Automatic annotation (TrEMBL):
Annotated protein name in UniProt: Uracil phosphoribosyltransferase homolog
Annotated organism of origin: Strongyloides papillosus (Intestinal threadworm)
Domain of life: Eukaryota
Lineage of the organism: Eukaryota, Metazoa, Ecdysozoa, Nematoda, Chromadorea
Gene3D superfamilies cross-referenced by the UniProt entry: 3.40.50.2020
CDD domains: PRTases_typeI
UniProt domain Phosphoribosyltransferase: residue ranges: 52-226
Entry-linked InterPro entries: PRTase-like, PRTase_dom
Amino acid sequence: MEYESNDKDYSELEREYGIIEREENGKILYDSIKDCEYKRDELPSKIIELEKKDQVLELQTILRDSETSNSDFVFHADRLMRLVIEEGLNCLSYKEVVVKTPTGRFYKGLDFKKGNCAISLCRSGECMETAMRQCCRSMRIGKILISEKEQKVLYSRFPQDINRRQILLCYPILGTGETVIKALRLLKEHNVKGKNIVIISVFSTTKALIEIGKEFSHVRIITSDIGNVPFNFTQKYFGTD
């Protein structure tokens, strides 16, 4: 996977995503091949990758295409994020309920158990909030802001009873995993059990998944793709690329 040079500092790309710089035909290109140092058979067991159906591959292709306009990018990114979030909802707890149908009959089905919430890791995670509300309108959404350079928690806001809730932790690009690991440590300080956390990601590197799994083996991770990541995803979504 190749990326043409942009305004993002190269040292920052290398640190965050393992991007390696090279020159070709007078252009500076970036390859995210450092991820190849990590083998897929080393991945933790609590990972769910979306099945590579045609529509998933189409959405991933559009999001990786440098010619995709901002409006098209947002539209298709929201579609892919909804698919990942819907898969994450399958990891939450349900209870059996009985409802009355318009014909007067009774139907035995399922409903969410109370006590679910989502947390977006700012700023990147905020791009997933629209898709989250489209999938689950009543879901409470908290926020955690972590300084990427210093890996320091600058701000956090979530329900006081967070330790009793099941959490969808939203962060679209898992590059190194450092930011998510810092957020998981914060939740651990608030007595949140790893088995109650589901990380929702769009693109993930093998490195990030392995690093997260080393420290938090009970945390589940949902992603649409494992391998190279489009490092400009958030900038493109918010139109700041």
